[in-house]
């Protein structure tokens, strides 16, 4: 089969590789021991992210999963209940870390990656009850990955966080793809993060840096997070190597996320043209496409294998549900070609 030497990799926006310019920024970064607070590049990045998210302070962490784990440690106690959207990253994609590290249980509510303040209030368990686990945290994922990169409605997030605060419940924004939500909605990251006690953002997804997430919040909460980062083994040394890539990405790779969103929409429209593929087009709001193989189409593992043979990499979520993600290392032409190939496979033979 004829295809370019490198495949069109739509498995995730984490597959993006640092550009030559980003590598130059990394090479030139002044560094120091971050555990003494002496890495000037990570300090600068933390200040920038705190300002961008409208919070007092921010803390660099090696991964988004650790940001989520540290947030749980900082905001809950073992035995507490945490309310999240159905199919959230915290429940599906962190190997059970919340139970192992923070000892919390999750209550999943809502549909398609979002929920309402009424659903939150109905699921909240009060403190001091003889049998209920107390709800001490509500977590919102924006954009929501497994629901197809949907943007959480901001007015609802404000109502939920306001109600939470009124009941002494903390709020946490899992904003690994908050940049996508900001670019697509026209709202600033600070506006999106404003209702929340703590917010996380990732540098290693659509922004194209090799690693790193940050937590932002009050000085007091970030102070707590420093301890739990160390406890989880995430306190590092010359982190400026990573932070320099993050600073480069913030300057050069945020506005261009609009291209990824346009590419995802074009793929979505092409997939929707096939009777063998079910996709909720209004749900394609950013750079993620989640679609279902209809009756008569091969199953998701088969589509993954056949697409790979034709130079397209995609991800199977369930036996019939698939995900494709656009990012800075795939062009509009490559996305159009990938969409054609996926439709041909969906409409091709079953076995
Ligand atoms: C990717 C992701 C994370 C975890 O980030 P890693 O750096 O892969 O650990 C957390 N939350 C959401 C919503 C994500 O998409």
Write the layout of secondary structure elements.
Elements (H helix, E strand, L loop, with lengths): L7 E2 L10 H9 L11 H13 L4 E5 L2 H12 L5 E5 L3 H4 L4 H6 L2 E5 L7 H7 L11 E7 L12 H13 L3 E6 L2 H8 L3 H5 L4 E5 L10 E5 L1 H13 L8 H13 L4 H16 L4 E2 L9 E6 L6 H10 L2 E2 L1 E2 L4 E5 L6 H15 L5
Parallel strand pairs: 1-11, 3-4, 3-5, 5-6, 6-7
Antiparallel strand pairs: 2-8, 7-8, 9-10, 10-13, 12-13
Helix pairs in contact: 1-11, 2-11, 3-10, 6-7, 12-14
This protein binds pyridoxal-5'-phosphate (PLP).
Pyridoxal-5'-phosphate binds next to helix 3.
Report how far the terminal alpha carbons are from each other.
Answer: 19 Å
- The amount of beta strand, in percent, is 15-25%
Cα radius of gyration in angstroms: 21 Å
**Strand neighbour order, sheet with most strands:** 2-8-7-6-5-3-4
So, the CATH homologous superfamily of the largest domain?
Answer: Type I PLP-dependent aspartate aminotransferase-like (Major domain)
The number of helical runs is: 14
Shape type: globular
What's the number of structural domains?
2
